[in-house]
Amino acid sequence: SYEMTQPLSVSVALGQTANIICGGNSIVTKNVHWYQQKPGQAPVLVIYRDSKRPSGVPERFSGSNSGNTATLTISRAQAGDEADYYCQVWDSSTAVFGGGTKLTVL
Amino acid sequence: EVQLVESGGGLVQPGGSLRLSCAASGFSFSNYAVTWVRQAPGKGLEWISAISASGGTTYYADSVKGRFTISRDNSKDTLSLQMHSLRAEDTAVYYCAKDVSDSEWFWHYWGQGTLVTVSS
């Protein structure tokens, strides 16, 4: 089954740029989606199909996908961006989530 | 406004059964695939099952295949998950979520979840 790897944690200084990566074999061939989850809340879709942003998601959130790595980029990080972030793909009739990355805004 | 409201969670003994429901409103339920995703305490998201808009196609994670059954009633805008042979490792918050179409397999709207605890 397909597997994706995310770093357990990423730290970013307030106002700086955070990059959260999601590694998977030839992940460029898949549509990668990203969810943000804050404690006690349901996940929220922040990026779909690699780089598209749902309405209501700030332009500070962007995504890319190349080779074996998909990346969620959060520019001008704010305290409110502190959350867990999960990548997700659909592969061989199953959905797969990465293990999640905890973003800390310092 | 799109709403998904899960119910049916609770405490169940190992080996027991439980049926979760997800009531949908605010959209044409019969036009969208829907899914169940769970999250064990302190752990990440785990996809467990999905069903097409018509209900004709279902998908399961290996961890629940043969024990869980997903179904939907488009006349009642309701999604269900019948769970049998429950194990301690099935303890989690169970979320239902709505696809953006019939087969995009990512989810823009989520319910708030219902907690299932498997313990003696």
Overview of the structural elements:
The complex is a heterodimer of chains A (106) and B (120). With 106 residues, chain A is an all-beta fold. Helix content of chain A is 0%, strand content 46%. Chain A has no helices and nine strands. Chain A has strands at 9-12, 18-23, 33-37, 44-47, 61-66, 69-74, 83-91, 94-97, 101-105. In chain A, strands 1, 3, 4, 7, 8 and 9 form a six-stranded mixed beta sheet that branches. In chain A, a hairpin with a 2-residue loop joins strand 7 and strand 8. Chain A starts with 8 loop residues before the first strand and ends with a strand. The mean pLDDT of chain A is 97. Chain B is an all-beta fold and 120 residues long. The relative contact order of chain B is 0.32. Chain B has no helices and eleven strands. Helix content of chain B is 0%, strand content 51%. In chain B, a hairpin with a 6-residue loop joins strand 5 (45-51) and strand 6 (58-60). Chains A and B meet through strand 3, strand 7 and strand 8 of A and strand 5 and strand 10 of B.
Q: Keyphrases for this structure?
A:
heterodimer, A: about 110 residues, mainly beta, three-stranded antiparallel β-sheet, B: about 120 residues, seven-stranded mixed β-sheet, 11 strands, about 50% strand, globular
Provide the fold topology.
The complex is a heterodimer of chains A (106) and B (120).
Chain A: E1 9-12, E2 18-23, E3 33-37, E4 44-47, E5 61-66, E6 69-74, E7 83-91, E8 94-97, E9 101-105
Parallel strand pairs in A: 1-9
Antiparallel strand pairs in A: 2-6, 3-4, 3-7, 5-6, 7-8, 7-9
Chain B: E1 3-7, E2 10-12, E3 18-25, E4 34-39, E5 45-51, E6 58-60, E7 68-73, E8 78-83, E9 92-99, E10 107-110, E11 114-118
Parallel strand pairs in B: 2-11
Antiparallel strand pairs in B: 1-3, 3-8, 4-5, 4-9, 5-6, 7-8, 9-10, 9-11
Total helical segments of chain A = 0
Structural class of chain B: mainly beta
> What composes the largest sheet of chain B?
7 strands, mixed
- Percent of residues in helices of chain B comes to under 10%
Broad shape of chain B: globular
Following the backbone from N to C, one meets helices and strands of chain A in this order, namely: EEEEEEEEE
